[in-house]
Design brief:
Layout lengths: L2 H13 L3 H5 L2 E9 L7 E2 L1 H14 E14 L2 E12 L4 E13 L2 E9 L1 H10 L4 H7 L10
Parallel strand pairs: 1-6
Antiparallel strand pairs: 1-2, 3-4, 4-5, 5-6
Length: about 150
């Protein structure tokens, strides 16, 4: 199975909020560098599960869009946008670039690069910023526009 197929299956599991299924795609020693400026690198599957549980507790609906990707060996580069409808009704959309490194078919390293300011601002207003909406309107491989 190609790593892009693994990622698409994981995205589908996340959309269903099936965290047990999401965890099957992650290496025991995963390192997640979520570089929006919100915290240190998350290391290990238990810490990753804790972080995902905390995120899922606030999310009513997830619309993870993937626009483009490049796969080379065990590396997968991706461009997309995470859109969340929070349980309080607020809507947040964050364009990102990311890099996954697979080991034995599982995500070992996950690095994401995005503007944390958009996350913070939209979290307060509950409205998607115009610069993020432009990204949401692009044709996507996954998500509502797929």
């Amino acid at each position: 199975m190609a790593n892009i197929e693994r990622l698409l299956s994981m995205i589908d599991a996340w959309a269903r909020q099936d965290l047990d299924a999401v965890m099957t795609f992650l290496h025991d020693d995963i390192e997640w560098n979520n570089s929006g400026g919100f915290g240190p690198v998350i290391k290990g599957k238990a810490a990753m599960r804790e972080a995902l549980d905390a995120m899922a507790a606030n999310i009513a609906e997830s619309r993870w869009r993937l626009f483009d990707y490049v796969e080379e060996g065990d590396r997968l580069w991706m461009e997309g946008a995470d859109e969340f409808i929070l349980k309080d009704g607020k809507r947040i959309a964050i364009p990102y670039m990311g890099m996954l490194e697979y080991e034995g078919g599982l995500i070992r390293y996950w690095r994401e690069y995005y503007n944390g300011y958009l996350h913070t601002t939209q979290g307060k207003t509950g409205e998607v910023a115009p610069e993020a909406q432009v990204m949401l309107d692009r044709p996507a491989i996954t998500g509502p526009k797929a």
